[in-house]
Amino acid sequence: MRFEQQRFELALQQVQQHLSTVFQPAYVFNSLPLSLQVFETLASTNQMLWELMSQGAIAGTAVLALQQEAGRGQWGRQWQSPPGGLYLSVALNPNLPVENSAQLTLCSAWGIATALRSYGVLVQLKWPNDLVINGRKLGGVLTETRIHQGQVTKAVVGVGINWANPVPETGINLQTVLGEQAHPAIASLEMLSAIVLQGIASGYTAWQQEGIENLLPSYLSLLTSLGRSVAVDDIQGTIVGVSPQGELQICTDSAALPSREILLKPGTISLGYDA
After folding, report:
1. What share of the chain is helix, strand, coil (3-state, %, to 5)?
2. Residue 13 CB: number of other CB atoms within 10 A?
3. Exposure class string for 185-198: b at 16+ Cβ within 10 A, else e
């Protein structure tokens, strides 16, 4: 599979015009100064981008690989990255308190999902970092940070999306979804890359301008797990939301105990997928 830079540049212009009707225009045209470097094969796009940032790459620099040999996902798992998928990372300089670092994943996932939905791809969000369609995993977001004096000063947002690659039983690729449409709006990996990259940039800029509290209602409207029953330390509860710090909010509903709220940090519980 090839990636044509000129086709991507043209697609990015089209996407920016389209998304200026979805997000506020300022969040699209005054967002990160996007630039993309493309590689045939990398160990990890996140790893390569950290190397480029150490050499002076600025916020908005992005790295794409046609395949990864050591991609990473949630829980430290290896992210299978065969040819045919989208593997993309973007550099940020957020300067926010470390306790709020999960907000970068929230705004990025929201931005990607909102952008894709505007093209007829009905993506939802599975806490904390998955993109799903019909309950099956389309992709995920992995945010890595560098901290100085309690502040996140640099970050890399990595995204993996199933485009035309083989997927496990719990996954789905986008070409399968688009094959059900008479006239699919996303016809190439270059177009998908432009949508995802501008979705991240627009979500990030919206977060910078509005704050996470104003974005959370839109994020929660796409969350798959609201109202779902879960057990935490043998205590039954119901998922009621996500906090500004990215914690899953669970309200206990045991008849034997007073109702109370439990907050779970990302990485402390897996909501799983049904095979």
Report:
1. 30, 30, 40
2. 11
3. ebeebbbbbbbbbb
Distance CA 108, CA 144 (A): 13
Where is pLDDT greater, at 113 or 267?
Answer: 113
Cα dihedral 194→49→31→7 (10° resolution): -20
Please state the rounded mean pLDDT for residues 47-72. 92
Q: What is the largest CA-CA distance in the chain?
A: 63
* Other beta carbons less than 10 A from residue 179's beta carbon: 9
Residues 6+ apart with CB under 8 A from 211: none
Tell which residue, 199, 181, 197, has the closest CA to residue 189.
197
- Alpha carbon of 126 to those of 7, 18, 54, 239, 271: distances in Å? 31, 26, 32, 12, 8
Q: Are strands 130-133 and 229-232 parallel, antiparallel or unpaired?
A: unpaired
Concatenating the DSSP letter of every residue in 107-121 gives HHHHHHHHHHHTTT-
Instruction: Please report, for the chain, the start and end positions of each structural domain, with discontinuous segments joined by +.
Output: 5-221, 229-264
38, 3 Cβ separation under 8 angstroms: yes
d(Cα 264, Cα 129) in Å, to the nearest integer? Answer: 14
In angstroms, rounded to a whole number, what is the distance separating the alpha carbons of residues 118 and 195? 10
Nearest in space to 3 (alpha carbons), one of 55, 39, 28, 53: 39
- Give the pLDDT band (50/70/90) at residue 75: very low
Domain 5-221 is of which CATH architecture? Answer: 2-Layer Sandwich (3.30)
Average pLDDT, the chain: 92
- Alpha-carbon torsion angle 61, 66, 68, 73, nearest 10: 70
Count Cα atoms within 13 angstroms, Cβ side, for 71: 27
Give pTM, 2 decimals: 0.94
